[in-house]
Amino acid sequence: MDVEFEAGPPEARRRRLTILTGIPALLATVAGTLGPTLLSVPELQYLIVLGGAWLLGSWLLGHRDSYRLSETGVRRSGRLRTRTYDWADFEGYDASGDAMVLHRAGWRPAVRFSLSGLDDPDQVREAVAEHLPAA
Q: CA 57 to CA 48: how far, in whole Å?
C-alpha cells in the first residue's frame, strides 16, 4: 500500500533552523545595507549577498517535502531534487506524537519529518512500522 503525504521538518527543528539562519542573515543584510554609509567601509555591502544566500539556504532547508512510502522504499521530493531510499538503507525509526525520524545506516543523516498537520498520521506510522523496526 502506498502512502503519500507532504510534511516539513519537525517543529522544534524548524524553529531552531529559523533562529540559527534567519537572525544572522537579517543582521548580515542590515550591516551590509547600513554599514557602508555609517562606517565608510564600502566592502560591507558584500554582506547583503551573504545575507541573501543565507536566507536562500534556510528557505531550502525549512520547506515541506512530498513523501511517498511504498513497498520499495521512501521517495522524498523537495524543491531541488527527488531522492529514493530503499527500506534496506534504514536501521529503524523513532516516532513521537508530532515527528518521525527514519534512521539511516552508518554516517548518513536521518530522514526527519513532522507528523502534525497530516490528515492521517497513523497511516504513516503503520506504513513505516511495516518495513522498519522501532529504534
A: 14
